[in-house]
Amino acid sequence: MWSKIIKFFFFANYFIGILAIALSIEAVVQLELPFNSAFYYLLLFCATVVYYTYAYTRPLTYAVSINPRTEWYSNHRNFIKQSQLLLLCLCVASGIYIVGNNYKNILGLPLPYWLILFIIPASALLYYGLLPQSFLMLNLRNTGWVKSFVIGFVWACCVNLLPLVLLKIEQGHFTAEPVLVLWLFIKNWMFCTVNAIMFDMKDYADDANRQLKTFVVRMGLRKTIFVILYPLLIIGVISMAAFAWSRHFGYVTFLFNLIPFICLLIVAYSLHRRKSILFYLVVIDGLLLVKALCGIAGTHFLIHTR
């Protein structure tokens, strides 16, 4: 029974939706801004689940893949269709509510906010190649090593910049330090990129057969870990330490923010051995939840020790 519940929660991407909310909350907490509305978080959760589930709702997927996750989707097609429809309706309803109650603020948005609102869906559409081929024949999901950076970029935009846009829409005004916003955006981008590279390891054989030149396919598992992942993580730790020192974070706040990087290093080392799909969905994706919780805890301690 517990096995079915775990597969349901993680295979159906509900955990991914929770991660999007957790990282968004971490962003506004670290910027010391108010929370977004419940309707925004509902919209974010539903849109994230629908988007990540889309790849497994196409009939072609069942024919070309035999991994346990795809098999689960094949056995639960009717439920997934109903779930996608319900979540899509909730997305539309939440979006209508937000627009209907804040249309004046939306019309008055400055140009940079409109650019963010354009970049996020455009990147998402390009990732799946959903734009008409007569307009642009590009699928970012099939761009090899660029793929992980694109995933990290979309996640950073959604959890760092989109909450700021919605705060501007829902509350009209807020103040956030641009340097801190930029640093948190880059940190999330790199952290999510490393996470995506690690996730590519489960698709090593399929990507190699498809001639998709990801980091893992180009360099192999061991070199990817020691030549790509470890240097990126070490650079991340050094840059975080420098930023923490410049902002006078204090040792406890710094240690809270260091925990996710240590966890990444440990998990990355373990990936030279074959892992199950649930390991990637629970442990590797779970590192994003660890990051969000540690970021919130570190900021909470910093605020209460000023």
Can you describe what's shown?
The chain is mainly alpha-helical. The protein has one domain (2-304). 79% of the residues lie in helices and 0% in strands. It is built from 14 helices and no strands. The protein has helices at residues 2-11, 14-30, 38-54, 59-64, 68-75, 77-107, 111-128, 146-171, 178-200, 204-209, 215-219, 221-246, 251-270, 277-304. Helix 2 packs across helix 3 (38-54) and helix 9 (178-200) packs antiparallel against helix 14 (277-304). The radius of gyration is 20 Å and the shape is globular.
SSE topology sketch:
Layout: H1 2-11, H2 14-30, H3 38-54, H4 59-64, H5 68-75, H6 77-107, H7 111-128, H8 146-171, H9 178-200, H10 204-209, H11 215-219, H12 221-246, H13 251-270, H14 277-304
Helix pairs in contact: 2-3, 2-8, 2-14, 3-6, 7-8, 8-9, 9-12, 9-14, 12-13, 13-14
Pick out its properties.
306 residues; mainly alpha
Integer tally of domains: 1
Secondary-structure element string:
HHHHHHHHHHHHHH
Number of helices: 14
Tell me the total number of β-strands.
0
Shape: globular
Q: Could you tell me the radius of gyration in angstroms?
A: 20 Å
State the distance separating the first and last CA atoms: 48 Å
Low-confidence stretches: 131-137
What fraction of the residues are assigned to beta strands by DSSP? Answer: under 5%
Mean model confidence by pLDDT: 83
Biggest sheet layout: none
What percent of the residues sit in helical stretches (DSSP H or I)?
over 70%
What structural category do the secondary elements indicate? mainly alpha
